[in-house]
Hints:
Blueprint: H1 13-16, E1 19-24, H2 28-39, E2 44-47, H3 56-59, H4 71-74, H5 80-85, H6 95-108, E3 115-116, E4 121-127, E5 132-137, E6 142-150, E7 172-175, E8 190-194, H7 198-207, E9 213-218, E10 225-226, H8 234-242, H9 244-253, H10 272-283, H11 289-292, H12 302-319, H13 323-329, E11 343-344, H14 347-350, E12 356-360, E13 366-369, E14 373-376, E15 380-382, E16 385-388, H15 397-400, E17 403-405, H16 412-418, E18 434-436, H17 447-467, E19 473-475, H18 477-491, H19 525-537, E20 543-545
Parallel strand pairs: 1-2, 1-6, 2-3, 4-17, 6-18, 7-16, 8-9, 8-16, 9-12, 10-11
Antiparallel strand pairs: 4-5, 5-6, 13-14, 14-15, 19-20
Helix pairs in contact: 2-17, 12-13, 17-19
The structure holds NADP nicotinamide-adenine-dinucleotide phosphate.
NADP nicotinamide-adenine-dinucleotide phosphate binds at residues 66-68, 155, 161, 194-200, 202, 219-220, 340, 361, 389-391, 502, 508-509.
Amino acid sequence: MTQPATNSRASNSDTILDYDAIVIGAGVAGLYQLYKLRNIGMRVRVFEAGTGVGGTWYWNRYPGARFDSESYSYGYSFSQELLDEWDWSEHFASQPEILRYLQHVADKFDLVKDIQFSSEVQSAIYSDDTRSWEIRLQDGSRFRSRFLITGIGLLSQPTLPRIPGIDSFKGQSFHTSRWPHEPVSYTGKRVAVIGTGATGVQTIQEVCKDVGHLTVFQRRPNWCAPLHNSKIEPDEMREIRANYEEIFETCNQTAAGFLHTADKRSTFEVSEEERYEFWENLYASKGFGIWQGNFKDVLTSPKANEAMSEFVADKIRQRVDDPETAEKLIPKDHGFGTRRVPLETRYYESYNRDNVELIDIIETPIEKITPGGIVTADREFEFDLIIYATGFDAILGSYNKIDIAGVNGRRLKEQWSEELSTFLGIQINNFPNLFMILGPHALLGNNPRSIEFNVEWITDLIEHMTAQNMTRAEATTKAVAGWYQHVLEQGEGLLANQIDSWMTGVNSNLDGRQERIVARYSGTQSTFRKRCNEVVESGYAELNLM
Ligand code: NAP
């Protein structure tokens, strides 16, 4: 159901509005936001840079891309019909299946008619006179709406290494998140992968099966753990379907929305035998249990973390035939789980293959890329294909890419360069009527669970404003300052916040991003949701609503 925007109090504003709400991005977040706003009678337009829906799962088509969260914990929970009709084929579905799922959702709820594809948003400028946002696309077209909602992802702006000669390479080269839609043949070819984060690991273990020769250029290794993926048989899917309520309830109760949550015991509270039995079980279990379901102090106590790291280091030594290669694959500069744990399927065994070589580029740095390949401090390599699994301008990149201006032309980029602060990761002072889905200082984890919660919170607020004939919402500076303090407090003591990674905003490929920042909320889902619910219960007292 759609209806015209008639609830504006600001003078002249009704007539100039093209839409009640504009949503940027047609990924997991944008699709659900469109669905929810449409259901409350809003005129909504989604602008999407890609040619189809799916967001992360549209862009990341690299070989081996798949869920690291259990498929059935990652889908939408809002529609029983959708849950009833969709069968997942694997415990950790691959990208083509995930994309098919999101396309199915878009078709089922007739979402595509309100999405404009190939439409990259260039700027978003707020006007207090009309209490509205003017969105300008790259093709120059402009649209005005009361509300602006960003579902632009936290890992969507790829970054390439700054290596001399990178543009001179004459073979094929792709960043993993810009993998072509057409099949790329690497069978029998000489292939390089740069980067060994979650993406690099998935890529390496997949392409090594077919390439002629694979050279992995690793700067810092990560602590990887087995995914233990398997097919979901029809009987099992029936069982999963019957348990959906419980599955989502479990996700809602855990710290970060996964099916796994920390064990109540601490590492040295149990006997050594019990400890190793527990770790062996985790290592043999599916998914993120080993990261999220470990002893409660593994991610906070240096001593517990060291013991866990040593356990995983031994696993790596057992799995990699060549002891020298094994040592190179064991992180020495950070402990287990302090960076996002890549989940793997025979990743370590990839290095036992004759056609795979690991180059430690701390030992022998890459000096340049040439038309024929890569030159390091001591060797020259020839390649047909270079794969850049070098990560993203995380959390901030997708916001910095758009010229966003709030009250009195205040630039978001400038405001955040002075202090990165938000209210609940959703609102920002000086930027009325702008709502972020998983912006900075929002809770990350099993993101669809957070997305559903955030989208519903935003929708409830907009519905409340509409019912009250209100047309302007802005978090107070006090609320923003309070949330900032809370975010800092929640992050204290967490080892991950003392390590360079995308989670702490460090990216060697970008100027000015060498220092760690607090970019995400490290508290639990229950703390986050409680706070969000309090805001609603207080009648949105921490927002200036008018
Ligand atoms: P990432 O974790 O940031 O890893 C980037 C890799 O590239 C690192 O190994 C990094 O080395 C290396 N690198 C960057 N610049 C380099 C340079 N100039 N020279 C050499 N090496 C360089 O990025 P990602 O692997 O794409 O993963 C990002 C996040 O996406 C993950 O943590 C995860 O949250 C998400 N993800 C999810 C899934 C899933 O759910 N299935 C799959 C993939 C990714 P250093 O460590 O030395 O910086």
